[in-house]
Structures are given as structure tokens and as C-alpha cells.
Design goal:
- The strands form two sheets. Strands 2, 4, 5, 6, 9, 10 and 11 form a seven-stranded mixed beta sheet that branches. A four-stranded antiparallel beta sheet has the order 1-3-8-7, with no helix packed on it.
- With about 120 residues, the protein is an all-beta fold.
- The chain is built from no helices and eleven strands.
- A hairpin with a 4-residue loop joins β7 and β8.
- It is about 0% helix and about 50% strand.
Length: about 120
């Protein structure tokens, strides 16, 4: 049974940092590409960052230089380091897994498995 469990969300002031984690189990984690998405109330889910099985990454333009996606294949864990947070980063953050390897940030429909989400709230 595939499971993706996010953690690390919380409330911070603008300019602060958070590190999200996503623990994966039930599949061959190292061969899947992974991604972080977010969804704010009333808005569509949007891709934030993606990483393929080789460690190649891509980012949404608005988070480039502030967020870093990484993975630890020995621990079956995905990370998102978020620095210089802004109020517009407030959203529920989800990790997703895609069986076909790709470093591209693809639409949500292209990902096979999803976590339950972790809330990030940034106050001004």
C-alpha cells in the first residue's frame, strides 16, 4: 500500500523558513519522480517544485531562489526547504509521486500518488 505522509507545516511570519518532509512507503521510491504542489482556498492546485530519480529539479518561477526540493533515497523521504516565505505562499502543501520519471513540473493529473497535505500559513 502506497503512503505519502507530509509533515513540517506551520505558521510563520513573512521572511521566515520552514522545511517540509514527505515520508514515502509501499513502492520503489528511488525510481519515481516526486513533486510538491500547493493549493490555497478557492484556487487550483499548482506545482511548486519537482525532482526526478537522478536529482534533476525544476521550480515554479515564483519560488525560484527561495525554495529547494531534495530527496533522500536511503530514507525514502522528500524535502522542501522554504526560505524567505511570503504571505502568498500560504496554502496546503502536498507531495506527489509519479511512476514515470521526469524532472518536469507536470499537471496534477500526471502524478500517481498523493499525500494528505500539510498547512503552511505565512503572516505579514
Amino acid at each position: 500500500q502506497v503512503q505519502l505522509v507530509e509533515s513540517g507545516g506551520g505558521s510563520v511570519q513573512a521572511g521566515g523558513s520552514l522545511r517540509l518532509s514527505c515520508a514515502a512507503s509501499g513502492y520503489t521510491y528511488s525510481t519515481y519522480s516526486m513533486a510538491w504542489f500547493r493549493q490555497a482556498p478557492g484556487k487550483e492546485r499548482e506545482g511548486v517544485a519537482a525532482i526526478d530519480s537522478n536529482g534533476s529539479t525544476t521550480y515554479r518561477y515564483s519560488v525560484k531562489g527561495r525554495f529547494t526540493i531534495s530527496r533522500d533515497n536511503a530514507k525514502n523521504t522528500l524535502y522542501l526547504q522554504m526560505n524567505s516565505l511570503k504571505p502568498e505562499d500560504t496554502a496546503m502543501y502536498y507531495c506527489a509521486a509519479r511512476e514515470r520519471n521526469s524532472w518536469l513540473l507536470l499537471p496534477p493529473s500526471q502524478y500517481n500518488y498523493w499525500g494528505q497535505g500539510t498547512q503552511v500559513t505565512v503572516s505579514s
